[in-house]
Amino acid sequence: MFLGTHFPKLDEKGRFFLPAKFREELAEGLVISRGQERCLTIWTVEAFAEHARSMSGPSISRRVRDFQRMLAAGASNEVPDKQGRITIPSELRRYAGLEKEIAVIGAFERVEVWDLEAWEQYQAEQEQAFADMDNFPDDEQ
Fold first, then answer.
1. How far apart are CA 35 and CA 17, in angstroms?
2. What sign does the CA torsion over 105, 126, 68, 114 have?
3. Could you list the residue range(s) of the whole structural domain that residue 75 is in?
4. Domain with 88 in it: what CATH number?
5. H or E stretch including 72?
6. Contact 105, 119 (CB under 8 A)
7. Is there a contact between 98 and 10 (Cβ–Cβ < 8 Å)?
8. Domains in the chain: how many in total?
9. Does residue 140 lie within any of the structural domains?
10. Assigned domain for 35 exists
11. Is the pTM of this model over 0.85?
12. Could you report the per-residue pLDDT of 50-95, keeping only the tens digit for each?
């Protein structure tokens, strides 16, 4: 499980150091993909495969196919280097608006990578709604 918020910086080659507490689980390889709200998601290879399986089936809707295409077309298999750095492909950096200042957040089964300013804005917008939540409606769980 991935938890916490970290603030590494992207270098000129589009690399950043994975937070130390995430490195062991991601050391053998990971998948970086587009996420919603213009962030990126980092999955273990197994978790990404499970996520993909959960969206497959012979009678899927066009909306699901569109989502699958966008997710898979933007996904990239990566392996951290010996120092624990990963490279974010330029297309994914453009999608998420990543330049130098980033936020890396644990989101349970995945890690999200945000442009720092976008993360701060999102967090500010969501804080009151989060504080006011009792629990999720049945259809949101």
1. 20
2. negative
3. 5-134
4. 3.40.1550.20
5. helix 62-73
6. yes
7. yes
8. 1
9. no
10. yes
11. yes
12. 988 887 776 678 888 888 889 999 999 999 999 999 999 999 999 9
